[in-house]
Structures are given as structure tokens and as C-alpha cells.
């Protein structure tokens, strides 16, 4: 099967202090139609910058320095601004972590949604408004017909996020990049949104890249997982396999730090230290300053070990399953 999205050795840099800092460092992954890929890691690991890179939204002086972003066979890393504008919203949509990055505060919600439809389709005003209304209802907005005439400031933060998700769903895109889309939502609405994304993948074959730090959501939603640290993917594979028997110490640390009902009252496990800044990234394995298994070999950059579908970047991987 040919992947809908095939990212190969993507490098995104930001100039600072006379040198280029790699926020995304030789990242490679693929996503098939109808598949959900969970992109997981701590804040600062490069997840959001990866999403912005795929959308062609990295602000100057940041830039994609090298690599390929093959979407349905076309390299988006070399696409013109006009070509990217024709794709955004129509075939590739992104739900941003902050809904105010999506919504214009001085335009009514209905105006913003219908303009999104008119940008890519020849459609009458009544039909556009009806589709906008249905999209709001789809994400759980009460009285959707009335709320089309409201402004963003009249919505709560969670409601604004639902509107942003509705806009992303309008054109039924081939690929949705969802950057922490349910962070501001209560548990009930969060479950509703996740169910809607699952239905999209099943009904329409929509591919989803779900960017998050929440392993609980990923475990019930994603087909595969890619764990990022220091701008690199350090482990990837089928969700069940990675969460049951993670190879990389960082992946294992993330999983162990999740609160469990089986250890009520016990102290939570922690990964020692903090994520290094791009300006002071350790040589070799970026995780070695926080890893109890690190030795002299880790001063070199580890390659990818394993199979095409399940691999890790570690000289001293765990071989046993989690208990």
C-alpha cells in the first residue's frame, strides 16, 4: 500500500546565534489512508513544529532545510505558496492547540466557516450556511443555527476549540493534523470528538496525525505511535506493541509516569532532569543526560534498529515487557 503521507529525513531549523538549531531533526514516518498516527512527547520535543512543517506554516527565519514531505506523491517541501494554499483546508487540515490561532475575533463564526467553504468550492450561501451549521452540531455545539451569528469571544475556550475542529472537518480532508485538539475540553466532549475522528477514518478513509502528550488518549485512538524527543523520533510502531513492550528508555519513562489505578497513593514515577534546549542539545543521543542506561557508546547518534514497521533509536534498548 502506498502511503498517503511519507515524510523522509525532514529537517526544520531556526537560526540563532549564528547557527541553525534543529527543531525537527531527520524525522521520518508515514501515514496511510484511514490510519491514525499518534505523535507523542514532552513539550519542546518538536511535535508541533513537525505539524507546522507539514502544513508549510513555519515562519521565517525558520525553514525546512532538507528532507521530503510526499503527500499523495507530491513533495510539499518544494511546493509553491499557491500550491500549499490550494491544499490547506481542502485536502490537508490542521486543528491548532490554541483556537484563537484559527478564529478571527472580529468576524462572526458563520462568516468564517462559510468563507472557508467558498475558498475551495463553488457553493451557494444557503448551502454553505447549512454545512457550517451541521459541522457545529457534529462537534456538540448547542443551538448551532444561532451560534453561527456569534463572535469568538462569546464562546468559552472549549467551545472555541470545538469550532476550530468543525472548521477542519468542513471539507472532509484526506489528512487532518490535530495538535492537542482536546486539551481544553471536558471529558464528555473529549470523548465525543475522539469518536468523530474515529468515524472519519472509518467512513471516509481520512488519515489523522494526533499530536499529544496524553498517552491515555493515544492508546484508545491511534493505530500506530511515534515518540519524539529532542526533535527526533526515538521509537515507532503499532500502538499495542510499543505500549506493552517499549524499547526506548524515554518511551518507557513516559508510560511509567502515567497515573495508574493499580498504584493508588504511590509516588508517581518521573523521568529525571528536563528536556534540553535546542541550543544545548547533547551530542549523540539527546536523551543520554537523563538516561540511567547511558554509557560511552551513547555519545554517538544511534541509528534506527528494528523493522520497517517497528523501530527504535537506542544502543541499550529494553527487551522485556512492562509489568
TrEMBL record:
It is found in: Cell inner membrane. The keyword Nucleotide-binding applies. It holds the Pfam family oligo_HPY. Residues 5-255 form the ABC transporter domain. One of its GO terms (molecular function) is ATP binding. GO terms for biological process: peptide transport; transmembrane transport. Keywords: ATP-binding, Cell membrane, Membrane, Nucleotide-binding, Transport. It is a peripheral membrane protein. GO terms for cellular component: plasma membrane. CDD domains: ABC_NikE_OppD_transporters. The keyword Transport applies. InterPro entries: AAA+_ATPase, ABC_Ni/Peptide_Import, ABC_transporter-like_ATP-bd, ABC_transporter-like_CS, Oligopep_ABC_C, P-loop_NTPase. Belongs to the ABC transporter superfamily. PANTHER family: DIPEPTIDE TRANSPORT ATP-BINDING PROTEIN DPPD, OLIGOPEPTIDE TRANSPORT ATP-BINDING PROTEIN APPD. This is ABC transporter ATP-binding protein.
